[in-house]
Amino acid sequence: MSNYNSTYEPRQAEWDNVLIDKYPAAKWKQWKAGLSDESVKLEREYLRMKHSVQVANSALLLEKIKVKLKLTSSKSIGLQGTFPCKPGDVGKKGCPNKQYTISLGFTANDVGLKLAVAKARELDLLLVTKQFKWTAELLGKQAQKILPDTEKAPKLISELIEEYEKAFWKTHERNRQGIRTWESHYLRHLNKLPQNEPLTLEAIETALEKTKPNTSSRFYLSWQLKKFSEFCGIDAAKNITAYATPNPAPTIRRIPTDEEIIEGFNIIGAPLSQYASKENITYPDQWQWAYGMLATYGLRPHELFAVDLEAFTNPENTFHLIKLNPALTQGTKTGERNCGVPPLYPHWIELFDLKNIKAPALGGTLENQTAKLHTRFRTVKLDFRPYDLRHAYAIRGHRLRVPIKTMSDYMGHTVNEHTKTYQRWMSEDANLEIYKEVVIHRVGASKEAMKERIQELEAENLSLKAENQTLKSILIKHQLEFLT
After folding, report:
1. Is 45 within the bounds of a domain?
2. What pLDDT does residue 144 have?
3. Using an 8 Å Cβ cutoff, are 130 and 70 in contact?
4. pTM higher than 0.90 for the full model?
5. How many CA atoms lie within 13 A of 382 on its CB side?
């Protein structure tokens, strides 16, 4: 029965009352002959590596190399030799040299063995040429205590970014949205720094100089470098401020009108050249269905793949609401919606035949599927993007006088985000159209109603006058009859 487990230590094994370290390593193949369980395999591998270390040391000795290999554990190979004393250490009887075993993390396998031999030759050469010096690499964990700050090797920018990322995940949830935030708002900008150099003011300024002034790239890089340098303990605020630029106003989007959206439905499904990709020349119904869903419900492009299709097509869903399942997209903003999302134009359900599900099977990761939607819009030469359909949905809500809080719930964000992000995309024409529908139409309707009411009152007044005249005539007649 095997005594193997994840913490098994082969150096404690014995066979026929012989400890494994007393057994000739050269005969590692004969160890526990006839047995082949996992623990025996580990013991034989330990003996094999012990024999390999012995062979390597014999070869180093022939080369007159005084640094030799040592199997420090069953899983690692170290280096052993006489070196100058470490800072703060002394040898026997005040000798300036002392024997040390240096652990550099070489794994006890054939690759680790070759690396250890190469390092032994390197250190021996430094000793011979009297250039040997204790470094943070050689001291390992002791470096923090032994080496003065001036002698500690500065961390590379790539190492600092790794530490920065660890700090980031302490305050962010590791889901799709969190990963996208790290990659888009942090790493994308930090990658503009030289990764294999220490973080210096020169490196920061060089990265900033590669961006153009008064651009969003310069603005966000400056913002991120300020945070990163503060995290790393580098006082670079003045240097970064010298390059800082205001956040430029966003490019005005051209939001499609309802008529253009309907026209785009036909364009998105049009067959293209035979030289186009497979996704572009096939499945026109799938492209149209995806387009119709984005246009009708104002979805973020990736949320298309989170729609609960079974609930959507349920006959009891008389108001054609859709619900989103964030689990289908590995975490999205869809969790912010506390209600079903309605179509602001219910007749588009039939116009775009949305209940006849033709969901696109684009394959690949969620990001790849979303990217293919954007590519399709460009390929068919639509002069707006998938996200513009969402903006059109937001503006449509204003035109229909849906309360802002309600529209925010439909779109899955806060009221502040709704007013900040979506109302700014309203063009002069869109605002004028809303004014016509909400104000002029209302005033016009009021004038027409007032005019009709006046006409009714005038007719009623004429009727009362005629009735009054009739009553006067009757009264006079009665008075004459009484006198006679």
Report:
1. yes
2. 65
3. no
4. no
5. 28
